[in-house]
Design a protein that fits this description.
By secondary structure, the protein is mainly β. The chain has one helix and seven strands.
Length: 124
């Protein structure tokens, strides 16, 4: 199944930090700046984790495809194919509205998915 209409990526970032002392002992003396003239102290970030999610919009669907996607929403294990790789995802969409061919002529489906992995940076 292709979700080739407008797809949007969003990220939520978790950060952890600590407070460093302004004055530091170096060469038998107290200093506010280090040997590179950078001020000591302040808030230092030591951990950053990014959670990535997507809002996917499908092409126009047949009733058969729409019903099949209902099973995808309820599935406990889902993978997203990206290139030659399969990435574990969780489906954030939890509501399903039944569509009928005689009332709803054409329709598409929007899914919210969250990647099963996080991106880490800023280790100190």
């Amino acid at each position: 199944m292709n979700f080739s209409l407008v797809n949007r990526q969003s990220r939520s970032i978790e950060k952890k930090s600590f407070e460093e002392a302004e004055w530091q002992y170096r060469s038998n003396d107290m200093h506010r700046v280090n040997q590179y003239n950078v001020f000591n102290g302040g808030s230092k970030q030591f951990y950053t984790a990014q959670s990535i999610s997507y809002k996917l919009t499908s092409d126009w669907l047949s009733l058969t495809d729409y019903t099949w996607l209902r099973d995808l929403i309820a599935s406990p294990e889902v993978y997203m194919e990206q290139g030659n790789y399969f990435i574990p995802v969780t489906i954030g969409t939890s509501n399903w509205t039944e569509k009928k061919r005689y009332a709803d002529k054409v329709y598409n489906l929007e899914l919210d998915i969250n990647l099963g992995t996080k991106e880490f940076s800023q280790y100190r």
